[in-house]
Structure formats: C-alpha cells, structure tokens
Amino acid sequence: MNLRRHFGDFNGDGTVDGGADFSPFGTSFGLSTGDAGFLAAFDFNNDGAIEGGVDFAEFGERFGQSL
Predict the structure, then answer these.
(1) CA-CA 20 to 30 A from 54: which of 9, 36, 47, 61?
(2) Residue 32's beta-bridge partner residues?
(3) CB within 8 A of 47, min separation 6: which ones?
(4) Domain count along the chain
C-alpha cells in the first residue's frame, strides 16, 4: 500500500485548498498544545504551537497543490 498526503491536507482529499483545509488551519492558527481547537496536524515542526514561522510557510508552500 502506498499512502501519500500533503502537509495541510486536513481532509485527506489529495489537495491543500480553501474551505476544507484553510478553514481549520486558520481556526487553529496561534493556538498551542492544550488550547481548545488546537489541531496537531498543522504543527509542521512539532513544537506544540501553530504559528507564523514554519507552520504557516509550510502550509502556504503546499496551498493549491494536489497529489
């Protein structure tokens, strides 16, 4: 089995896009582990926070891309 997924593809449809992926990213942006609404799937560098540095850049890098 070959399983592939882009970082930021929250709903797993193979595309990092507007509603299904950007909305939950935006909702969890600025949150940290333990905060209500924190989604670890968007914490690219696994530092416990979804922030403007690495996490936003990595999401933006893949936005609009499909597998």
Answers:
(1) 36
(2) 49
(3) 54
(4) 1
pTM for this entry: 0.85
Residue type, 9: D
Taking CA 46 as the corner, what is the angle to CA 40 and CA 49, rounded to the nearest 5 degrees? 65
Please check whether residue 56 lies inside any domain of the structure. yes
Position 45 in a domain: yes
Q: Does some domain include residue 6? A: no
Per-residue pLDDT 10s for the chain (67 aa) are 677 778 999 999 999 999 899 999 999 999 999 999 999 999 999 999 999 999 999 999 999 999 8
Q: Is 11 among the domain residues?
A: no
